[in-house]
Specification:
Radius of gyration: 21 Å
Shape: globular
Helix content: 40-55%
CATH class of the largest domain: Alpha Beta
Largest sheet: 7 strands, mixed
Strand order of the largest sheet: 7-6-8-9-10-13-14
Order of helices and strands: HEHEHEHHEEHEHEHEHEHEHHEEEE
Domain Leucine-binding protein: 26-319
Number of strands: 14
CATH architecture of the largest domain: 3-Layer(aba) Sandwich
Family: Belongs to the leucine-binding protein family.
Number of helices: 12
Keywords: Signal
Number of domains: 2
InterPro entries: Leu-bd, Peripla_BP_I
Structural class: alpha/beta
Signal peptide: 1-22
CATH superfamily of the largest domain: Response regulator
């Protein structure tokens, strides 16, 4: 209970701006993100990592003497509320830079909103992975769903697995990931053992889950939101307790375990877009660990490291001096740049800065083993 209360108080505190030295002397950064909805754990951890890096910079005097004022608004994971929050950040808070929220549904809604289009801003670092056009005014830190899916397939291909089951929840948030999955299956020639369609028809789900378990696929890949994935996993594990089940890096692992149970999440693996956040084997990992201990009273996670790395990358991308009207916010150095043992921005003509993907296993201690 104390841990849950602390996390919610932390979420509230993150909605408050950092204090600026003097009016007009700060760089105002805004973000609308889920802090209390279905992906609150992801949002809160991501913001904690970003805020930690900004705290470090402000302690050192900011950027060329200008402190960062970080304004975070809770959109509860809802597209319409995210659009409203972004409009307030642009129109009333007059942010100069805008970080993104969680999910492709929210991201698309913001990109298509009138206030965002008029702003001339670029949406930076949303926790989403669909393929967007280069001119969509969005710049991702993380790799795409396609890259995550390819890595998952590559991992199981090394184990000699050639047949899979697919768990799919049809929605705006999962459409792109599902399309990329179909493309990857076609490209690799992998066999489909069966599909579970996560709909409102529980009897249908039960029938399809039983059929999939009986087919004994080499592994199962889930393209669904965390709640639906948790409901499926709980039932599937009664029938197939030791079949590998795979998910993406945007699965809310805390919620998944609560819904499915500790035993059910064994034999599940997840793609990860940052290295192990719990060890200091590279400068960025060590810096993140040390600064989280110094500035935050909460455990590190893949999302706190991703936020920290995204913020550190953001600083490197900024145009020098004060931004003027019509000037692009970001310049990506040719050949990319090193953020502490990891190169980002290496791929030309891409709106994804990082190509890093790893695989982690959900262990019995409710953590990830890389």
């Amino acid at each position: 209970m104390k841990r849950i209360l602390r996390k919610y108080l932390t979420g509230f505190a993150l909605c408050l701006p950092l204090l600026a030295h003097a009016a007009g002397d700060e760089i105002v950064v805004g973000q609308a993100i889920d802090l209390s909805g279905p992906n609150a754990d992801l949002g809160r951890d991501y913001v904690a990592g970003i805020k930690t890096y900004f705290d470090v910079l402000n302690t050192k005097g900011g950027i060329n003497g200008r402190r960062i004022q970080y304004l975070v608004r809770d959109d509860h994971g809802q597209a319409d509320l995210s659009v409203k929050a972004v409009a307030e950040l642009i129109g009333q808070a007059h942010v100069s830079y805008l970080f993104g929220g969680v999910s492709d549904e929210v991201t698309r809604a913001v990109l298509n909103s009138a206030d965002f289009k008029r702003s001339g801003l670029t949406l930076y670092g949303p926790l989403a992975g669909a393929d967007y056009q280069k001119n969509d005014r969005v710049l991702f830190w993380r790799p795409s769903y396609q890259q995550e899916i390819r890595h998952i397939f590559s991992h199981f291909d090394k184990l000699g697995i050639k047949d899979i089951g697919v768990v799919y929840q049809e929605s705006a948030a999962t459409a792109d990931a599902y399309q990329r999955l179909l493309e990857q299956m076609k490209e690799t020639g992998i066999k489909l053992s069966g599909t579970v369609h996560l709909t409102s028809d529980q009897k249908q789900i039960s029938r399809e889950t039983a059929a999939l378990a009986a087919a004994k696929p080499g592994f199962v890949i889930m393209v669904a939101d965390t709640v639906s994935a948790g409901v499926f996993l709980k039932e599937f594990r009664r029938l197939a307790p030791q079949t590998f089940v795979a998910g993406s890096s945007l699965t809310n692992l805390t919620t998944l375990r609560e819904l499915a149970g500790g035993k059910a999440v064994e034999w599940t693996v997840f793609s990860q877009v940052v290295p192990n956040p719990g060890i200091g084997s590279s400068p960025i990992q060590l810096e993140h660990l040390n600064m989280m201990r110094k500035y935050r009273d909460e455990p590190v996670s893949a999302l706190t490291l991703e936020g920290f790395a995204a913020a550190k990358s953001w600083i490197r991308l900024l145009q020098p001096g004060k931004r003027i009207a019509g000037q692009s916010e970001y310049t990506i150095p040719g050949g990319g740049f090193d953020i502490g043992g990891y190169m980002v921005g290496e791929t030309a003509n891409s709106n994804h800065l990082s190509n890093y993907v790893d695989i982690a296993l959900f262990n019995k201690a409710s953590g990830l083993t890389y």
